Fold this sequence. Notes:
By secondary structure, this protein is mainly beta. It is 7% helix and 46% strand. Strands 10, 12, 13, 14 and 16 form a 5-stranded antiparallel β-sheet that branches. Strands 19, 21, 22, 23 and 25 form a 5-stranded antiparallel β-sheet that branches. A hairpin with a 4-residue loop joins strand 21 and strand 22.
Amino acid sequence: xxxxxxxxxxxxxxxxxxxGFATVTAPGAPAEPAAKPxxxxxxxxxxxxxxxxxxxxLAETRYTAFTPxxxxxxxxxxxxxxxxxxxxxxxxxxxxxxxxxxxxxxEKARKKAEKPVLAVQEPGKPxxxxxxxxxxxxxxGLATGAxxxxxxxxxxxxxxxxxxxxxxxxxxxxxxxxxxxPGASTAKSRQDYIHLTNPDDTGAVADIELYGPKGTLASDVxxxxxxxxxxxxxxxxxxxxxxxxDDLTAHVTTRSGRIGAVVMSADENAGxxxxxxxxxxxxxxxxxxxxADATSxxxxxxxPGEDDADVKVQLMxxxxxxxxxxxxxxxxxxxxxxxxxxxxxxxxxxxxLRLTPVRKDRATPIVAALRVARGKGDQQExxxxxxxxxxxxxxxxxxxxxxxxxxxxTAPGATAKVKVTASAGSDGGxxxxxxxxxxxxxxxxxxxxxxEGLKGSYALTVETTSGGPVHASRxxxxxxxxxxxxxxxxxxxxxxxxxxxxxxxxxxxxxD
Length: 512
């Protein structure tokens, strides 16, 4: 018995030496207190990537980056977005003159990529940069220290004519390994490019799978797409398959490395915008912020698992939740894309769409997105609203103008209160704070109170103070030649805080 007792203590000492902490309790001794709950601390590093804005020479792009005011992980920090590196074609390496010229161009690009396009100087104030034409590059960036928690960036591009006409807005994405894009297309009237951007110093390899209404679309070229270090690749979806499909779901995964992924969709009849990834597959999804004057609402959904899904389709309107006539439910077959035209669903009032399982005991995970149109005929303009997670503790969206911004808040569960902060302007102005109550099962659309003395653009930060959850989106509208161009960005939790486990007892230094 004595030797067993000593071996237990010796084993614990070894554990302490290996892990840096352990708890030693002799047999029969009182148990140690339970471990302390995890501490909630601000993140100290955050990465973002932005796709190349446009292939149009008429494009005018504004980049905006922002970190909300708050407690950062360190006293100082940096938050910079730099150009991605161009992909060098080494096909002519056998020709010494061409090889030298290519190397000189690559070296010039590397030096250019070290200069930030924009950098946030302080929390609570947006940084803005502009670019014109088709040469604006994709961007990769990193924020550290006090500028990392909640760091976000947006690029907004206005194209007034041509096949890419529209207001194209996209929130720059955090690198990841898995993305779902319901609502993409290989139809003849569409030009959908999936942009893959690698922020790291080593190459990444990605796969793209396409799923239509009848299942997987045949493709021999969607596997093993190489994305070089700190570079961006755009892939035209219609080149991956011979099948022309109006509504499909694109699935992007990586075999190695991390990437940011978004889809640029251009419709020759209805304008263009970015499609951002849907929230992770879930039994219940919310798509917030359908404009009151929407002339068409088109739902696309996909069930990635082995089971079919049956979901209720509900609109959370200004005063109540209801199901659209004739489309109260939707059946989604496993691994097949389903879609339904909900027409002018909102009928003059703002709303948000919620999908929930018909049977609570069969909550099959799905992904979904909305294609929303305003106007008709050659005055039509489109935007996409993917399913998104709740605001949670905090979420921000940059690039709000003096006019044209609408914030949509919806509470699919309990009534909630939210605090909305309009930041200082990029060129001047004092922050403004408002508090709103969002009733359960409704959508509240507000015109944000702009900063006093606003100059430039500003950011909106939404915080849930009680109740909820709350889902949110921001619509930005600009009028050009009589066309009400618009784009919608969702506001999921910014992930600025992270749980850090606490040890019960530190035995990293043991007495002899």
